[in-house]
Please model this.
Amino acid sequence: MAFVSDREDMCSMGLTVVRHLMEKNSIDYKDIGRLEVGTESSLDRSKSIKTYLMQLFMEAGNTEIEGIDNINACYGGTSALFNCINWIESSNWDGRLAIVVAGDVAVYAPGPARPTGGCGCVAVLIGPNAPLAIEPGMRGVHMEHAYDFYKPVMDSEYPVVDGRLSITCYLRALDLCYQRYKLKFQEKAGKKYSRKDVDYFIFHSPYLKLVQKSFGRLVYNDFLEDPDHPDYVSVRNFAEISRESSMENRDLEQAFVGLTKEEYSQKVQPGATLSKEMGNMYTGSTFAALAYLIASLGDESIGKRVALFSYGSGLAASLFSMKIRGNLSKFKLNANFDKRLSQRTRVTPENFSEILLAREKTFSKGDFTPCGEISILFPGTYYLDRVDSLYRRYYKYYSP
Model:
């Protein structure tokens, strides 16, 4: 599981990934016309994370950049993505590129939920003629009011969570988004949707077991449309169970997870590996899974379709798809995931708890200098240097 000390936060992580994106791809800061952030790890109820990231662009003389923060639990990054795509497709587009920054520090109070935390941040470049193309009109959306996971305590990073309700909300949103996506697919593709039309599936990943349940749930939805299909002989006894009661039917859940094991390994596992290493990245979860997936694919991947399910508690959800239509070799070279993961610093559970306690003591506080060790940071990382008595945060770039 990934985590950070009080030296890092959403601002420092955003600065780090944007700078890496620009430098690794030799992009001029003046070529960016929109920057949107998706996060639930805000540090101020007024000042956006995006404005902190503007420091990089101000140095290059570019202050004409649209976009702002998007906040709704783990869904903010997806909202930022859709906003950037809409901008490029609109009459307001000025020909420049857009960037989506999605990331969070996912921490929980001491207790059984703490090991389900994580941390991560992703920067995504959006523009024309991209090797990954969102499929227009193929999007299923569901939003409603629910108190499954929320953060009402302003001076704490820790959420209030109803774990059982959150899983039910997630699966219900998945059902509805999938059903609506299939209808949109039929309208746009001119043929009935089949799971065979999708080569890879990516799910928002609070923890890996939920991803396994989710893929089983998609197959359950397909089963309800054609329970007499030969593929479903072993689960035909579940045909009469109501959709509502199926949410908490463990026998049904295990049956469909078992039924889909081989297909899961082919279509889901390639994108689910990173969450095992990083934990829950909240808004960055879906994007990080996509990045790991495309970094693992070969040249034969052109033309493949990837379906992504994004979920944010409260709740907002979308299922959409994209196609690989260009060479991804440069991305693979820059990603280098396995090497970077192997270079992380390991700590004991006791040290982990001490580091989170230090974050807890200084969260939302002013006039302090963080105590986290700087020398363990990766070169090229931004970190929090100090917070003054007016709560102004100052960051530095680690370049040993």
About this structure: The radius of gyration is 21 Å. The longest helix spans residues 163-189. The mean pLDDT is 96.
